[in-house]
Structures are given as C-alpha cells and as structure tokens.
Amino acid sequence: MGKIVFTVPPRIDLQRRVSSTIHVVGLDGIPWPCKIFFDGRQLWIHRNRDESGHVFLAYALPEYGELVLSTGTLLENDEPYHLTRELARGTLNRLRNQLSLWQEGGLEITADVFECLEVASRFLGDSIWQNEIAAADEAAHESIRHSLATIFRLCELFGEQVLPLRRERSEQPMCWFGVNLGSHPFQMLERLPCPPDVLQVSRIDAAKSSKMGLVLGPFLDASPGGMPENWARINNFDDRQAAILDSVSEVLRGPLDRVNVLHVVSGINGMGHRHLSYPQQLQMTLDLLSLIERFELAIPTMLSFDTPWAERLAWSVGGVHPLQIADSLLRRGAMISMLGLDINLDYWPNGSLPRDPIQWLDLIDLWSQLGLPLVIRLIAPTQVVGEQKQSSNSGLNVVRGSISDEQLFRFLDSIIPLIQTRPSVHGIIWGQLQDGVDPRFPCGGLLDADGVPKPINSLLSCHLE
After folding, report:
1. Claim to verify: residue 289 and residue 309 sit in the same structural domain
2. Which one of 196, 273, 280, 465 is least enclosed by Cβ atoms within 10 Å?
3. How many helices and strands, by DSSP H and E, does the chain display?
4. Sequential pLDDT tens for the chain (465 residues)
C-alpha cells in the first residue's frame, strides 16, 4: 500500500542525515509520514495512501550544499525508479514550467538561460538512454546541476527586472525590514522602513530606536522551547492560561504609541509538545486575539507559522498543515491582519531545510491565497565554525550544517530579492540580533556573542538599500 521503490546509486548517501529528510507530498500538497527501508541498493518508501506523489529528499551538491529536491509525480510501483534520474526529471520539469510562465509574462530571458536549459535537458536524455547505472547516475547528476544553475540564474533575472518595478509603484506597499532585538518581557522587533538609512545593527541604540516603529511580540511562542520558564513551570493549563493573559493585559495597558504590529502568537505548526498541546495552542491563540479585540486597539495583529512547508507532518503521525490552521482561524472570523512565515533555515529538528528559489516562490504564492499580507521571519546560522556545524540529537535544536557560510550567503543573495518581488510580502524580519539571545537557534545573530557585526550585515545592506 502506497509503495514507491528506487534504485539508489552510490552517490546518494542514505545514512540517517539524508534518509530522515525523505517525505512524500500528494496532490493535496500535504506531506505524509513514510516508512523507509534501505538495503544498500534499493529504497522502499511506504505510506498509508494509495495515490501518486512527489518524493522529496536532501541532495548534496558542491555548489549549494544540501538542497531539498523533489521528483516529478510518481505512481506506486514494483519495478524500481532510478532515484537520481527522477530527481533530475522533477527539477527540470519545475524549471521548464516556471520559465514558460515568466516568458508569457514578458520577462526578458538571456541566452545563457536557454543554453544551460538545453544542457540540462541533454544530460537527462543521456541518463534515460543509459543502461549502466553509474553512467545514468552521472548524467542525471549533471542534469540536476545545470537545472539548478538555470533556476538560480532565472530567478536572479526575475529579481533584477521585477523588484525595481515594485519599488517604483507607489500604490504597492514597500517591503520593510526588521531585526529581533530580543527585549523583555516580550520580544520587540525593530521595524525599519525600506530602504533603511543604515543597516549597521551595531549602531542601533535608544536614540535611533525611538524613531522607529515596533512589532511587539510574540506574546506567545508556541514552538518547542519557546515558552518562558515561569510559564512552563505552571503545570495546570487553566492557571498557565490565566498567567499568560494577565501578562499580556499588562502590556496592552501600557504605552503603545510606537507599536505598528502586535505579534500575537508565533511558531504554530499543527503539532503539540510537552508544554503546549495543539488544542491548547489554538485556545490560547483565540483567547489572545479576543483579549486584544476587547482593548479596542487600532493596531494590526499578526500570527506566524513554523515550518510553513509543513515538513514536520512527514515525521509525525497526525497533525495539521499550518496553512489549514490559518484558513480555519480566518473562517472563524478571528481578527488577524497579517500572517508570518517562520523559516528557521538549516536548523534541525525544529526548522526548514534549504530549498531552491522556485520552491520559495511557490510557498509564498500558496500562502498568498489567504489574501493577507505576509511577513517572512527568517533566521539561519551565520559564520558557524567547528563543532557547531555538527548535527546532534541533543537539545531542542542544532545547526544542521548542510550548507557552508559561503553557500548560505550565495543562497540568501538569491532568495532575499526574490522575496521582495512578491507584492504579498510586506516585511522581512531577521530572527535574532545577537548570538545567544535564543539558544534554540545558535549562531543565528547578525552580531556575534561579543556584539561584533557579522559579514551577513553587508549582504543584507546590499539588498535592502
């Protein structure tokens, strides 16, 4: 039932690091739990649904590190598919579809894109006609490399041509940039107009911040490890609920003249944990929204959702897609002004693995269907060294280290302008000002632990001018 079989070439190392990323996404867009069996040559993927689907897994490339790739739509089978070939077919298919859409929309495509696309197609053809597994694998790998190079180049062209148009059109809201300052009792996020005057975060001080708007919150971080210790020690949910509401009430009674957004709850992903079950997360979300409504504050509200690709569903039995949660809350009439996508890039297990730019566009377009402005809340390990790169099962989160610092910067160099092209994206928030503020996301600050700016500031300044 629900069986897909692959022949796995030696190139793909299916040790736990990679095998734990495998999941199948059906036509409904929902990742499904799978049972994985590998005998050293063939891979069996079983799930409890009899339908076709896309197989996703992390694939290592020297240019990009590990990126999550997908096959095309595959039927259940007894005869094995060739894994690298199917990843090449799926990657090339997504590229061709996106290229066709943008060509029809009038994007000016340079000759190098078509040349690289032709090479990727030729290598895939060579892989299909090869009977020898090693030769077929090598050709498919080259097809993947050229397809991804074309995807990054195509998305670079899209950003270069579309982003200036968005900035020139006064009727469209500009995309602002924020930095999580980690203030107490709740996190306060600097909201800078775009373009900012400077992005040297080491120069953020009281005088400067007094002139900027704030995103106040989140009042409740629903993700594992996100609850403050004083609330986590309360064993009874009713008592904990009362303590949270009392604390938020005190904040809402205070001066809010500089607050532009109330970030109500973060880290909602359809899964529960030992401090906050999923039903309790929903209850607290509705309670907090009702509390804000009673204060009659004319301040927009935001909810943000963890693992927005819903990949956590693939490793759990049960659970709800974050998009379905947002849709359900909106159908209930909850007073939500904007939605945040919490992308904890390259952290594990409470994070998202790197994906190519087209998958980021697909994610934003999917969430845009709900009709609310989006805020991308992004954090990634920057300037990581030594043992911090090593994956571990201890603690709530580790740096997975699937991409190097250089690869991360090259990746963000493509992703950030692409995000800004989407009219539905109204803001980008970097999740941590300084290393150590949130131990769940080590090395994720724009400053190191001593307050020294990291090289990522130069990259952000370049794109947010």
Report:
1. yes
2. 465
3. 12, 19
4. 578 899 998 888 888 778 888 888 888 788 887 888 888 888 898 877 777 889 999 999 999 999 999 999 998 887 899 999 999 999 999 999 999 999 999 999 999 999 999 999 999 999 999 888 889 999 999 999 999 999 999 999 999 999 888 878 767 677 888 888 775 445 545 444 433 333 333 333 333 444 457 888 899 999 888 888 889 899 899 999 999 999 999 989 988 888 889 999 999 988 878 788 889 999 999 999 999 999 999 999 999 999 999 888 877 767 789 999 999 999 999 999 999 999 999 988 788 989 999 999 999 999 999 999 999 999 999 877 554 544 444 445 678 778 888 899 999 999 999 999 999 999 899 988 888 888 888 899 888 888 888 888 888 877 765
Q: Are the CB atoms for 451 and 461 separated by under 8 Å?
A: no
Domain termination residue (choose one: 115, 136, 166): 166
Same domain membership, residue 208 and residue 343:
yes
- Same domain? For 246 and 388 the reply is yes
162 and 108, same domain (yes or no): yes
Domain co-membership, 274 together with 125: no
Among 141, 166, 191, which residue terminates a domain? 166
- On whether both 271 and 376 belong to a single domain, the answer is yes
> What's the domain count of the chain?
2
Domain, as residue range, for 429: 174-463
- Say what the pTM is: 0.90
d(CA 401, CA 437): 20
- Using CA atoms, how far apart are residues 154 and 139, in angstroms rounded to an integer? 22
Q: Are residues 300 and 263 in the same domain?
A: yes
